[in-house]
Design goal:
mainly beta, nine-stranded mixed sheet, binds zinc ion
Length: 131
């Protein structure tokens, strides 16, 4: 499957990231501090090797995201010394208000965002009105 896909909110349909391709064959999971887990423009499906929470989640690069805000109780949602962790509930909120994603961006965390497929979907970006 070489088609690009858009990451979209299942609750309202807004595009959260555009023209993503699957990670390349031979992709390896690396979870070092401050290292991007997937390259910009790519997505991967979590296999649970980082945490059970990420299993089967769609994992993307932080810089590819748009149309997202923070929950009202932001600081309680896993804010570390300078960025986010994913252990205290979703910390990425869609413009429609749905709490849909988990960002990891603290200096002691690998950098990524992950989303459950119950909250987001991937639809081919080269098809008009797809999905
Ligand atoms: Zn939404």
């Amino acid at each position: 499957m070489d088609h690009s896909a858009n990451l979209r909110c299942r609750h309202c349909g807004v595009t959260l990231a555009s023209n993503l391709k699957p990670v390349e064959a031979g992709f390896k999971w690396v979870f070092d501090m401050q290292i991007d887990v997937v390259p910009s423009g790519r997505f991967a499906i979590g296999n649970g090797s980082y945490s059970g929470l990420t299993k089967d989640h769609i994992i993307v690069h932080l810089d590819d995201l748009k149309s997202l805000t923070r929950p009202p109780d932001d600081v309680g949602r896993g804010y570390g010394c300078c960025g986010y962790w994913d252990g205290h509930g979703p910390n990425l909120v869609c413009v429609c208000g749905a709490e849909i994603g988990f960002e990891l961006s603290d200096c002691a965390a690998p950098r990524m965002a992950h989303f459950a497929t119950t909250d987001v979907m991937l639809s081919r970006s080269d098809l008009r009105d797809a999905g």
